[in-house]
Amino acid sequence: MIVVTVNDRLGTKAQIPAFASDLVKHFKIMVAMKVGREPHEILLKRQGERPFKDQLTLADYGVSNGVQLDLEVDTGD
Amino acid sequence: MDAASIEEINKVRRAMGMKPLPVPGATDAPRGPSPDKDQDIASTLETREAAAYDNFRKLREAEEAKKRREEKAAAVKKARDKAQRFATLEGRGLADLDDEDDLDAKSWLKTQKKRQKKIEAVRKLDEEKAAADAAAQHTADNLAGVKVAHDMASFLDGNEQILTLKDTGVLENEEEGDELENLSLREQEKLQERLDLKKKKPLYDPNDIDETAEHVILSKYDEEIDGKKRKVFTLEGAGISTELADILDAPVQRRKRQAAGIEVLEDAPPQNPDYLDASEVKVKKPKKKKSKTTRQRRADDEDALFAGDLGVTGDDQEMDVDSGAVIYTKKKKVFDDNLLDDEDLQASLAMQRKEALKKRKKTRPEDIARQLREEGSQSLEPEFLEGDKGMVIDEISGFVDALNPERLEERKAAKAKAVTEMQDESSDDEEMADADTERESVDRDRTPHADISTGVEEEKLVGQGMAATLGLLKDRHLIEDTNGSELNEKFRQKQKFLAELHRRMTLFDEEARHQRERDRASGRLDKLSIREREEISRQQNTMREQHQSRVMDQLFREGYRPNVELRYVDDDGRSLDAKEAFKDLSHKFHGKGSGKGKTDKRLKRLAEEKRRMAQSMLDASQNVGMSTAASHQGKKRKEAGVRLA
């Protein structure tokens, strides 16, 4: 089990437990539950990198315990 | 992370069908690894590392199994070998007794006949084989009747030639039989043919007259109509029988059949030739004082060069006194040489040739071929064959004969004139004067230049008139020879058209005036008011103009041929051709000319052109045109002089 920190740099910061083998899609639901925003409005990315895709796992992006991800609003494009 | 929040999350996870997170308080370790294993077995580094050990073990097992199998196979083989080694040999050995050999004498004699027959058959077979081998060997006899697709003359060089069967289809020319040819010779022939085609011979060559051949009308088209005449001869057993006509390019007088062997293609013993060998000839170096002997040479040379020489011939006695007896003897010698006139030479040559022919009565074809070839090369000599000494007169010799007497007379007259001029007052050659009075009177009013051409045209001068100027410019290639007749024709057409136009215009004017006058005279208009009169005249004008324009249109359509000519002139006033003009316009358009190098080159070329225009072709003082080589030679030899031709 890993604990991932999600931070939107605007004052919202949440720590979410997950498996590295979880899909980004499912992880987003966990994040949605924590930050109170719709899952399809959530966009996760490492700092300065491209946004995560839903169908890949966290392990594919090299997300391990204690990693911080940036949280942005997904506008759908 | 506290257990409560994880529990909460696990609830959601379960709702989504995902595996719950491990809660730190509860111990559900056995549930952890099992689903992890079957979900994604090789996705993480740890699982892969775990798998590596299994793989290694499997590999080791496989290797061991292989080793065991090989050991087993080796043991099996060893056992089989051992069994074979000790197996007993079967069949009859060398030492074993033969059942047939222990026959008695009687039965052996009985089979003797059969054995004899077998030996006989073997011998016969051998003989047949030997005979077949012998038959396979080729001799000269095998070549009898085979054609060789070459001119026999091409084999006279004495080099060894290798002939091969010509490359044709098997059934293509079955009735004609096989043909031999030499590939390199064939190549040479083809090349020769191509070169001949390139030479662009004139269709009718007046010098190429063959007295011996039967005259065929338009023989030059024979090749196109009948196809190409191939040069072929046939081998025959020990000798060759050939059509000798093939040896020469031109047809020979008689087509003789002669037999000759292949083996005699070596050089024939040398006959006494018509001409000296080049090695035997010794050329005497001409002495410096040769100029004194010009008189005799002029007598038989056709071109008397200098008008002034007439004087020399006239007073050569005085000259001889000056130079002494040496020159006299030399002159005699020259005269003797000239006794060998053409006819004498021909007669002696003919004698020689006749002798040679007699000797060669039983000659071989290649000798005849050689001889014929020689004669072919001395093309214009009259031939003396079959012993009759008569001179054969062909068209050319007839023409030349017709020319000669006139020239001779002329020369005589000139000489006589010179003599009489020399000795005007003396009366002792009166009969000479009588004989030539008419001619002399003609000669008198000619200038001395007119009789005897110097071989050099005088340079034309601009002062002599338009034609001379034109000639001068043409000689120097300063103006191109345009197609004058065409231009003239165009110009005439244009003038004609203009004249016609002018004529019609005047005609129209005339007509209009007449009509107006008629109207005025008739008094028809007097009754009408001014306005009506104007109306009528306007109508008439428009009608007239219509008619006029129709006629003009017709005229233009028929006769008007505009001549469009684009002329480009550069800044210096030189007219440019299309390429130069394009360059010039392009430079002007882009506002950018050629670089320095190109400009320099062009200026240099222009200057050169200007210089060339200005200088005289025959001026020996400059190294120009024809006089360069001559002047170089003169300088080399340290001779002074002006070249005239």
Automatic annotation (TrEMBL), chain A:
<feature type="domain" description="Ubiquitin-like">
    <location>
        <begin position="2"/>
        <end position="71"/>
    </location>
</feature>
<protein>
    <recommendedName>
        <fullName>Ubiquitin-like modifier HUB1</fullName>
    </recommendedName>
</protein>
<dbReference type="InterPro" id="IPR000626">
    <property type="entry name" value="Ubiquitin-like_dom"/>
</dbReference>
<dbReference type="InterPro" id="IPR029071">
    <property type="entry name" value="Ubiquitin-like_domsf"/>
</dbReference>
<dbReference type="InterPro" id="IPR039732">
    <property type="entry name" value="Hub1/Ubl5"/>
</dbReference>
<keyword id="KW-0833">Ubl conjugation pathway</keyword>
TrEMBL record, chain B:
<dbReference type="GO" id="GO:0000481">
    <property type="term" value="P:maturation of 5S rRNA"/>
</dbReference>
<feature type="region of interest" description="Disordered">
    <location>
        <begin position="356"/>
        <end position="386"/>
    </location>
</feature>
<comment type="similarity">
    <text>Belongs to the SNU66/SART1 family.</text>
</comment>
<dbReference type="InterPro" id="IPR005011">
    <property type="entry name" value="SNU66/SART1"/>
</dbReference>
<feature type="compositionally biased region" description="Polar residues">
    <location>
        <begin position="618"/>
        <end position="631"/>
    </location>
</feature>
<keyword id="KW-0175">Coiled coil</keyword>
<dbReference type="GO" id="GO:0046540">
    <property type="term" value="C:U4/U6 x U5 tri-snRNP complex"/>
</dbReference>
<feature type="region of interest" description="Disordered">
    <location>
        <begin position="512"/>
        <end position="549"/>
    </location>
</feature>
<feature type="region of interest" description="Disordered">
    <location>
        <begin position="1"/>
        <end position="42"/>
    </location>
</feature>
<feature type="compositionally biased region" description="Basic and acidic residues">
    <location>
        <begin position="512"/>
        <end position="537"/>
    </location>
</feature>
<feature type="compositionally biased region" description="Basic and acidic residues">
    <location>
        <begin position="436"/>
        <end position="449"/>
    </location>
</feature>
<dbReference type="Pfam" id="PF03343">
    <property type="entry name" value="SART-1"/>
</dbReference>
<feature type="coiled-coil region">
    <location>
        <begin position="53"/>
        <end position="82"/>
    </location>
</feature>
<feature type="region of interest" description="Disordered">
    <location>
        <begin position="610"/>
        <end position="645"/>
    </location>
</feature>
<dbReference type="GO" id="GO:0045292">
    <property type="term" value="P:mRNA cis splicing, via spliceosome"/>
</dbReference>
<feature type="compositionally biased region" description="Acidic residues">
    <location>
        <begin position="422"/>
        <end position="435"/>
    </location>
</feature>
<feature type="compositionally biased region" description="Basic and acidic residues">
    <location>
        <begin position="364"/>
        <end position="376"/>
    </location>
</feature>
<feature type="region of interest" description="Disordered">
    <location>
        <begin position="266"/>
        <end position="302"/>
    </location>
</feature>
<feature type="region of interest" description="Disordered">
    <location>
        <begin position="411"/>
        <end position="451"/>
    </location>
</feature>
<protein>
    <submittedName>
        <fullName>SART-1 protein</fullName>
    </submittedName>
</protein>
<feature type="compositionally biased region" description="Basic residues">
    <location>
        <begin position="284"/>
        <end position="296"/>
    </location>
</feature>
<keyword id="KW-0539">Nucleus</keyword>
